[in-house]
Amino acid sequence: MGLTIHLQFSGGMELLFNNEKEKTVTLPDTFTPALATLKDLLPWMRDNLLSERAELFMQGDTVRPGILVLINDADWELEGELEYVLKDDDTIVFISTLHGG
């Protein structure tokens, strides 16, 4: 059985993910527990969950500038960013800090 990850989107990020503010996903078996990282999760999210405009979510192999990422309520910079190893029942939050006006 794959890892279960809780995803949350706000600040406009939910618009890119079918207007869903929260989504719990069970990752496929290709995500090896104790080895799968956030760097693996982001392209999977882009390919499987994103409903529109991938360029507003990712730039290269990471999130675009202006997107705050929290891992279990901690800034991802404190957790190793892309190298963070996913754990079952993690909560990962994506918050856009850029707003039109």
UniProtKB/TrEMBL annotation:
Residue positions, PTM 1-thioglycine: G101
Crosslink (Glycyl lysine isopeptide (Gly-Lys) (interchain with K-? in acceptor proteins)) position: G101
Swiss-Prot/TrEMBL keywords: Cytoplasm, Isopeptide bond, tRNA processing, Ubl conjugation pathway
Molecular function terms, GO-annotated: protein homodimerization activity; protein tag activity; sulfur carrier activity
InterPro entries, per database record: Beta-grasp_dom_sf, Mopterin_synth/thiamin_S_b, Urm1
Localization: Cytoplasm
Superkingdom of origin: Eukaryota
CDD domains documented for this protein: Ubl_Urm1
Entry comment on modification after translation: C-terminal thiocarboxylation occurs in 2 steps, it is first acyl-adenylated (-COAMP) via the hesA/moeB/thiF part of UBA4, then thiocarboxylated (-COSH) via the rhodanese domain of UBA4.
Gene Ontology cellular component list: cytosol
Gene Ontology biological process terms, A to Z: cell budding; cellular response to oxidative stress; invasive growth in response to glucose limitation; protein urmylation; tRNA wobble position uridine thiolation
Pathway field: tRNA modification; 5-methoxycarbonylmethyl-2-thiouridine-tRNA biosynthesis
Similarity field: Belongs to the URM1 family.
Functional description taken from the UniProt entry: Acts as a sulfur carrier required for 2-thiolation of mcm(5)S(2)U at tRNA wobble positions of cytosolic tRNA(Lys), tRNA(Glu) and tRNA(Gln). Serves as sulfur donor in tRNA 2-thiolation reaction by being thiocarboxylated (-COSH) at its C-terminus by the MOCS3 homolog UBA4. The sulfur is then transferred to tRNA to form 2-thiolation of mcm(5)S(2)U. Prior mcm(5) tRNA modification by the elongator complex is required for 2-thiolation. Also acts as a ubiquitin-like protein (UBL) that is covalently conjugated via an isopeptide bond to lysine residues of target proteins such as AHP1.
Protein name as annotated: Ubiquitin-related modifier 1
Gene responsible for this protein: URM1
